[in-house]
Specification:
Mean pLDDT: 93
Number of helices: 12
Low-confidence stretches: none
Shape: globular
Largest sheet: 8 strands, mixed
Order of helices and strands: EEEHEEHEHHHHEHEHEEHHHEEH
CATH class of the largest domain: Alpha Beta
Strand order of the largest sheet: 6-7-8-3-9-10-12-11
Number of strands: 12
CATH architecture of the largest domain: 3-Layer(aba) Sandwich
CATH superfamily of the largest domain: P-loop containing nucleotide triphosphate hydrolases
Structural class: alpha/beta
Radius of gyration: 21 Å
Bound molecules: adenosine-5'-diphosphate, magnesium ion
Number of domains: 2
Strand content: 15-25%
Distance between the termini: 29 Å
Length: 322
């Protein structure tokens, strides 16, 4: 079976007042049927730019996709006519965002927004769409679902709005769900409920690209993981393998920063330093400035991705093992 989603050598460049900036560089990722693939890295690594590229949601004309393909069922989404892409957006590939207001209109009642989505993507008559939408709001655990159909988004809490967005995604039964930090703004109890709903979608055969900065969330949600650092993928593997035998020093640093790995009372280990700006990347390995294992070569040369037992690692220490 071909992969559900196959990103090949994606490069994304922004034209800014200070010249072009490459925010994603030669990135390849494959989401196979049945997987929940986590894309993890600190803020500013290029995760959202990658996600937005898939459905071509980046600002135009200041963004240029300068190389790559994004294959969905064998069709390159980057080459698809806009009308065909519109059909795929929402109904075949859905996206949920950290901030639900990215997807919800502040001017329209929740019910009308759900109904309109069903009318457009499922060709459902309004009479049938209204109870269907209310049913899905119940399914995602929204209290007083029927009344909430008449509410405007600002009358709901952040967690409730997130559920509305998930209801919208679930009711269209997409082949792929892209979730970009969907629970970062929510407390842990609500996060757990949202994760349950996403697991339910996965059981119903939706493949997922799950984006987060939190390795703990990767452990709870994902089957596979790709670690991103400063515009590129630095390690890939199964979740089991990455957690038991991480190869890249950046992956190890992210794992050490999971709260549960810290003894109570001890400060949370932060990774020293900051992600370099894509305008100003180190010459060699992008992580070399912050890496406890960096040697001369790491500062001078940029490493390739080298094979590891279950994936790949962009580190000269992994090159030595191959
Ligand atoms: N519209 C834009 N114009 C210029 N640069 C951008 C734009 N959007 C994002 N970037 C740059 O791309 C980089 C990656 O951003 P992003 O994908 O949002 O990171 P992440 O989601 O991993 O936190 C950042 O350094 C940011 O400055
Ligand atoms: Mg982001």
């Amino acid at each position: 079976m071909p992969p559900l989603l196959d990103i090949q050598n994606l490069t994304v460049t922004f034209d800014t007042d200070d010249g072009p900036v490459t925010a994603v560089n030669q990135l390849s990722l494959t989401l196979e049927q049945g997987q929940i693939l986590g894309l993890v890295g600190e803020s500013g690594c290029g995760k959202s730019v990658t996600a937005m590229s898939i459905l071509r949601l980046l600002p135009q004309p200041s963004t240029r996709i300068t190389s790559g393909k994004i294959l969905f069922h064998g069709h390159d989404l980057l080459q698809l006519p806009t009308a065909e892409l519109q059909d795929i957006r929402g109904s075949r590939i859905s996206m949920i965002f950290q901030e639900p207001m990215t997807a919800l209109s502040p001017l329209h009642r929740i019910g009308n927004q759900l109904v309109e989505t069903l009318q457009i993507h499922r060709k459902m008559p309004r009479k049938q769409a209204w109870p269907t939408a209310a049913h899905w709001l119940k399914r995602v655990g929204l209290p007083d679902a029927e009344e909430r159909m008449y509410a405007y988004p600002h009358q709901l809490s952040g967690g409730q709005r997130q559920r509305v967005m998930i209801a919208m995604a679930m009711m269209l039964d997409p082949a792929v769900l892209i979730a970009d930090e969907p629970t970062t703004a929510l407390d842990v109890t609500v996060q757990a409920q949202i994760f349950d709903l996403m697991h339910e979608m996965h059981k119903n055969n939706t493949g997922m690209l799950f984006i987060t900065h939190d390795m703990g969330a990767i452990w709870q949600m994902c089957t596979h993981v790709a670690v991103m650092y400063a515009t590129e993928i630095v390690e890939t593997g199964t979740v089991q393998e990455i957690f038991s035998n991480p190869q890249h020093p950046y992956t190890r640093a992210l794992l050490a920063a999971i709260p549960a790995n810290t003894a109570p009372g001890n400060p949370l280990p932060a990774i020293p330093g900051a992600v370099p700006s894509p305008r100003n990347l180190p010459k060699g390995c992008h992580f070399s400035d912050r890496c406890p294992h960096a040697f001369d070569k790491c500062h001078a040369q940029h490493p390739d991705l080298y094979p590891t037992p279950c994936g790949q690692s962009r580190c000269f220490l992994s090159e030595e093992k191959t």
